[in-house]
Structure formats: structure tokens, C-alpha cells
Design goal:
The complex is a heterodimer. By secondary structure, chain A is an alpha/beta fold. Chain A has one domain: Rossmann fold (3-Layer(aba) Sandwich), CATH 3.40.50.300. In chain A, the strands form two sheets. Chain A has a six-stranded mixed sheet. Chain A has a three-stranded antiparallel sheet with strand order 2-1-4, with helices on one face. In chain A, strand 1 and strand 2 form a beta hairpin. Chain B is mainly alpha-helical. Chain B contains nine helices and no strands. The longest helix of chain B is centred in the middle third of the chain and has 41 residues. The chains are: A alpha/beta, B mainly alpha. At the A-B interface, strand 5 and helix 2 of A face helix 5 of B.
């Protein structure tokens, strides 16, 4: 279980997040809100990438998170395959054979063609980069997936493809976005709205 | 970088060296960086060494002309190169070639969230980015220092023979009479210290970038300025400690 307890974040004396509490057990939840409202900051605090000004985040022992960054954050000096392999290669518990098999499995699951694996990340389109970022996040089979604006800047075809992939992965976690259509397309049922630093459960998306 | 950074800066290399990570992978990156910092700097160091050897010989010949025996030329040039010019100028050459580049590379990774991405896949960025660079420079810089001294001395001896009629044997006799082993090892100890701190400056400045392209450029400039000043400060400290 992920538990955010009374999390607040202050940036340059401005309160971005105000006493937010959130719990994720086995569900996939959405957080929507306008641009610049603090959604990414909330997600990064949950992932442990940013420290909260107050409050704490707890993740059950043995559980892990995978993070899909808004701008993909791929390692641009590496090929697609090297990006996907990296999390497993840096872990001491996988042999080369196991990593090869896992890369093959994930590539097929996410419709990554073989020839793309050899390409440098800089040569990919925005949508392809997102898919590789998802592959890198899921390859070590984290308990929860955290998506930061996974469909921003994509055309409708790629938007639908990414949503289909996210839905197909069927992993619990959190998806933050400003685009309510994304939340609907990936089939999220529990949606929160982040506004003025507060997080409120909403039902209006499906009404 | 400001005054608040002094303590974190001093802690940074030790946190990096003791950061957890897979040893074999760190070793592979260490070898890659040896190639980047060491092998690819050879030409630069040879060129610098060539001209330093010439200038040092000309200046030394001018200083001792008609006052001291010819073998003093080898003594003066050798001592200057060994304890001062070799370590300092090799460090300066690598600051220009490697330190600014590592600050820019790591800074770009920071602003494009690649460092956050490393953390998100449970890789310690200090172990992944800082540790192999620091260790690689610790090996590369002293070896390049030795190369620079060797090149400078050979060119100096050749120049002295052609233009001042100082026999090469006389030149090298002066180099080793008297020979103090301390001069030799101090040269390498200084190189090691320079390597440690200039790499720390480059990596630290990269890790602490926030913003965009302009800030990455500023980090590269900061890294060069800080490491240059550090070399001069450490050089003074070494001079007072060892001589």
C-alpha cells in the first residue's frame, strides 16, 4: 500500500500542496488538475524523488514503484534497448539470459518493433519515447506504476495507443494528467481533482 | 555555487565513493571513463608537454646563462617540471577537456530528469555517475602527468642540445644529480589530489544544476573556475607541506 499522510510542499513561500492524504491499495487512481497546479510534484513526492516540506509517504515493505516521466527522461546516450535493460542490468539478481528474455517480453507487450530497439533514443518521436519510458518503468515489475502526464503533446492516434498500453498493463498506481479524456480512456474509476493545493475525490468525470 | 555549498561539496566525493552499487558495473563505467579522460587526453597532454618542455628549457637557459655549469639546465628543468609544472599544467589541461564536459553532461541529465529517472529505477546517481568518474580521474591524471613530464624532458633535452650545445647526457645527469625521491612521489601525490577535487567540482556542479540550458552552461563555467582555483590552492598547500 502507498500512503501519503498530510503531505505539504512549499516552494518559494508558496504552498503548492496543502496537507494532502492519499492511499493506494490495489487500485489505479487518477489525479487531474490544470497545468502547474502541482500534480507532478505530488507524484514525485510519492515516488521519493522530492522531499515534502511536511508529512510523509509510506510504501509497504517489499513493494516498489515505477515512474513514467512527463518528458520521458530517457538516457539519451543509450539505445532504446539499453534504456529498457538498465534497471535489470544494475540489479544483481538477473542473468544476461533472463534480461534478454524480459526485454523481449516487454517489447512484445508494448508493441516495440525489433529494429526500434537498436535505435538511439534521440531518433524517436514523442510517442515512441513515452512507450520506451513505460517499458523501462515496467521491466522490473514494480508493484505500482506512477504516470506523469503520459499523453501530453501526443496526437490522437498516439494518445489512444498509449492509453491502450496503460490500460492493458492493468497495474495499480497513480496517473496524473490535465487531460480528463486520458483518465477515461485508461478506464480509471477513482479520480481526484487537485486544486489550490487540496486533493478532492470527484465523480463528475463519469456523470 | 555559494558559501552554503562548501560543506556539501566537501562531503560529496566521499558520499559518492561509499555509495552502494553493483561493483562490476561500476568497474565497467570506470574503464569507460579511463578511456574518456586518459586515453583521449594523450594527444592534448603530449602537445602541452612539447611546448612546456621548450619554454621551460629556454627560460632556464636564460636564467643560468654564463653563471652555472651546463648540467644545471637539466636540474632546473627537471625539478620545475616534476614538482610544479607537470602536475599543475596536466590538471589545467584536463579541467578544460574533461571537467567542463562532465559538468555539462551531468547538468543536462539533471535538467532533463535523467537523474530522477536513475533514482526511480533504484540506481544511486552518485554511484552511477560520480564514483566511476572520480576513480577514473584518480588513475588517469597521475599517469598523464608522468607522460607530460617525460615528453617535456625529452623535448627540453633535445632543444638544449641543438640550441645551447648541452649534451643530452649532461642534461640528464643534471636531472638526477641530486635526485630526491620526494620530488618524484610528491608529483604523483599532487596529481592525485588535483584529480580528486577537480572531478568533484565537475560532478558536483552538474548535480546541482536547476533550470535550463543557460544554467547548464553556468554549471560548466563554475566547474572550470572552481577546479582551477582549487588546483592553485592545493598546489600552495602541497608546497608548504612538502618543501
Amino acid at each position: 500500500m502507498i500512503q501519503a499522510i498530510n503531505v505539504s510542499k512549499i516552494f518559494e513561500s508558496k504552498k503548492i500542496l496543502d496537507d494532502i492524504s492519499l492511499e493506494v491499495r490495489n487500485e489505479f487512481i487518477g489525479v487531474v488538475g490544470s497545468t502547474g497546479i502541482g500534480k507532478s510534484i505530488l507524484l514525485k513526492i510519492i515516488a521519493g524523488l522530492i522531499k515534502p516540506s511536511s508529512g510523509k509517504v509510506m510504501i509497504d515493505q517489499g513493494q516498489t514503484t515505477g515512474f513514467v516521466f512527463q518528458h520521458s527522461a530517457l538516457f539519451d546516450s543509450m539505445s532504446v534497448e539499453q534504456n529498457i535493460r538498465l534497471p535489470l542490468e544494475e540489479s544483481s539478481s538477473f542473468s544476461k539470459k533472463e534480461i534478454d528474455a524480459k526485454v523481449k517480453e516487454i517489447s512484445e507487450l508494448l508493441y516495440i518493433p525489433k529494429q526500434m530497439l537498436k535505435q538511439n533514443c534521440n531518433d524517436l518521436s514523442g510517442g515512441e519515447r513515452k512507450i520506451v519510458a513505460i517499458a523501462r518503468a515496467v521491466i522490473y515489475d514494480p508493484t505500482y506504476l506512477l504516470y506523469d502526464e503520459p499523453t501530453t503533446g501526443l496526437d490522437s492516434v498516439m494518445h489512444n495507443k498509449i492509453c491502450q498500453i496503460v490500460k492493458g498493463l492493468n497495474k495499480p498506481g497513480i496517473l496524473v494528467t490535465h487531460n480528463k479524456d486520458t483518465v477515461k480512456a485508461v478506464g480509471i474509476k477513482i479520480v481526484y481533482v487537485l486544486d489550490a493545493g487540496k486533493l478532492n475525490l470527484t465523480k463528475e468525470l463519469y456523470e | 555555487m555559494g558559501i552554503r555549498d562548501v560543506i556539501p561539496f566537501l562531503k560529496f566525493p566521499f558520499q559518492s565513493l561509499f555509495s552502494p552499487g553493483k561493483g562490476a558495473k561500476t568497474f565497467r563505467r570506470f574503464i569507460d571513463h579511463i578511456y574518456d579522460f586518459g586515453v583521449e587526453s594523450i594527444l592534448l597532454v603530449v602537445i602541452v608537454g612539447f611546448f612546456v618542455g621548450l619554454v621551460t628549457t629556454v627560460q632556464s637557459a636564460y636564467q643560468i646563462s654564463n653563471m652555472l655549469p651546463k648540467y644545471f639546465l637539466g636540474l632546473t628543468v627537471g625539478r620545475m617540471l616534476m614538482i610544479e609544472l607537470g602536475p599543475v599544467l596536466t590538471a589545467m589541461a584536463l579541467i578544460g577537456r574533461c571537467v567542463s564536459a562532465m559538468a555539462a553532461e551531468i547538468g543536462t541529465m539533471k535538467v532533463t530528469e535523467q537523474i530522477d529517472a536513475l533514482k526511480s529505477i533504484k540506481i544511486d546517481p552518485k554511484n552511477y555517475l560520480a564514483k566511476p568518474r572520480i576513480l577514473a580521474m584518480l588513475v588517469s591524471l597521475p599517469l598523464l602527468n608522468a607522460l607530460m613530464i617525460a615528453v617535456s624532458l625529452c623535448i627540453g633535452a633535445l632543444y638544449a642540445q641543438i640550441f645551447y650545445g648541452t649534451n643530452t647526457q649532461v642534461f640528464f645527469y643534471g636531472l638526477t644529480h641530486p635526485f630526491y625521491p620526494r620530488d618524484f612521489w610528491v608529483s604523483f601525490v599532487k596529481s592525485g589530489f588535483f584529480a580528486f577535487w577537480i572531478t568533484t567540482a565537475g560532478v558536483y556542479c552538474g548535480f546541482n544544476v536547476s533550470g535550463g540550458a543557460r544554467d547548464v552552461g553556468k554549471a560548466a563555467t563554475d566547474a572550470v573556475v572552481i577546479s582551477t582555483v582549487l588546483v592553485l590552492v592545493l598546489d600552495f598547500v602541497a608546497a608548504t607541506l612538502f618543501f
